[in-house]
Amino acid sequence: MPSVMINKTEAGGLTLYVPKKDLEEMIVSMEHEGPDRWGGELTLADGSRYYLEPMDAAPRLPITLRVKRL
Amino acid sequence: MCAMKREEAEALIQEVLEVYPEKARKDRAKHLAVSDPNVEQAKKCIVSNRKSVPGVMTIRGCAYAGSKGVVWGPIKDMVHISHGPVGCGQYSRAGRRNYYTGHTGINAFGTMNFTSDFQEKDIVFGGDKKLEKLIDEIQTLFPLHKGISIQSECPVGLIGDDIESVSKKKAKELDKPVVPLRCEGFRGVSQSLGHHIANDAIRDWVLPNRDDDASFESTPYDVALTGDYNIGGDAWASRILLEEMGLRVVAQWSGDGTISELELAPKAKVNLLHCYRSMNYLARHMEEKYGIPWMEYNFFGPTKIAESLRKIAALFDEKIQEGAERVIAKYTPEMNAIIEKYRPRLEGKKVMLYVGGLRPRHVVGAYEDLGMEVVGAGYEFAHNDDYDRTIKDLGEGTLLYDDVTGYELEEFVKRVRPDLVGSGIKEKYIFQKMGIPFRQMHSWDYSGPYHGYDGFAIFARDMDMTLNNPCWDKLQAPWKKAAAAAKAA
Description:
The complex is a heterodimer of chains A (70) and B (489).
Chain A: E1 3-8, E2 14-18, E3 23-32, E4 38-44, E5 49-55, E6 63-66, E7 68-69
Antiparallel strand pairs in A: 1-2, 1-6, 2-3, 3-4, 4-5, 5-7
Chain B: H1 6-17, H2 22-29, E1 32-34, H3 63-72, E2 79-83, H4 86-91, E3 114-115, H5 120-125, H6 128-141, E4 148-152, H7 154-159, H8 163-174, E5 178-181, H9 191-206, E6 222-228, H10 234-244, E7 248-254, H11 259-264, E8 270-273, H12 276-290, E9 294-296, H13 302-313, H14 318-346, E10 350-355, H15 359-362, H16 364-369, E11 373-379, H17 384-393, E12 399-402, H18 406-416, E13 420-423, H19 425-433, E14 438-440, H20 452-467, H21 478-488
Parallel strand pairs in B: 2-3, 2-4, 4-5, 6-7, 6-8, 8-9, 10-11, 10-13, 11-12, 13-14
Antiparallel strand pairs in B: 1-12
Helix pairs in contact in B: 1-18, 3-9, 6-8, 9-12, 10-20, 13-14, 14-20
Pfam families (chain A): NifT
InterPro entries (chain A): NifT (IPR009727), NifT/FixU_barrel-like_dom_sf (IPR024044)
Protein name (chain A): Nitrogen fixation protein NifT
């Protein structure tokens, strides 16, 4: 369950930053991106996948969360 | 125009690696690469932030060096206790040339060494009592200090002293911040973890101090200047440019900085980050908690300065954008005169760099302004994200070396024969004796500042002074020179 920071890039995409692993990657897909449901399965540009407990509303970014590695 | 072709550089790396035993060779091979601007991510070509191979001469520092030496040390109005045996503090005292204003020993303590000087009995019975006594003594002798940081050296972690409880107790007694840092030298692979620990301590023990205090009158033009340690006056040379374009610098981290500036940073509108490696953790934290955007900038060389000033100004309104143009216009003739003077003397010269933090990538622009070319670059303690940023700035076929060993660097220099090597004091005399001009790029070879427009003038002069020094023709004994000339004839 790494603690990660999700942030918005200048271009509008989302990035996932894992401080412990020093990994900063673009998020290429997210299961729920709607305003009323946010999170779910994430796929990064390097192919790794994470699971984020879905939230009821899109949070203010950047935000530090716990995710599960899949 | 690169001196070496890609294949040549790759062959050189293989040749250098040959002397290692198989396991070490495999390990070191991952840290050496040839830059390729087409590579999107550095991790595909270079591995970084790994433990050094035992037995090689690495140039890295320890976590204590990263915390006390880099991040906390320059905060001038605090007393930084090197908690543990006397050596760590004494041998690193005042070596980094973080300039500050103030009266040393009265209201500024930057170049002083405070240590708990552990003896055998402190290792056996613990050093907490001694630490309390030491803090009381500091309060008596230096009543104008604004806070204390306790920088752990290795034994403190090994014997398990509870410096946090001492800190809390003494902070209450003194009514001043007392910050414990768990930056024992054995932690992590390099000083980089020390930066992280120091950042986390600022986050936990300093930043929240003024969260409920709205008495600070802010303006829309408040910025925090972070990741500049004022080496030889760097932060001052940067700060005047920002002020000239109409911004108000409310915090300077941490060169010539104070504890109250640390506490004020969350009130700024933008965080301007120079050294990404040592302060990005805090920039990210402040973005999340206080909603302050952060931006990396580069104040080495007129091209990059102009680029950065415009990028900074773009975050503000027209008044600041006009200010940026005014500043650039004001200094451009001056800079052109410098380039005109030094470029003919330096044009086409090759540089190899092996430093830390931000320099291997940030100074590339400054060298290019002088017509010089960086043919090799490496970091002591960088992570992947640093190399991601670096490969964009380097040309095709540049050697990249991470945590390079003494042997490797010597071999690279022997083969590439650059006109200038920029690295630290431990490398300086090796290369000078090899007949290669050298600049000590950690503390600007006792010169500086190198940041900002004022800094570039000094940078250009220093490079010329080193490279075109007549001493480099005098390395051969006159009779040997005569013999060589006769032989050639």
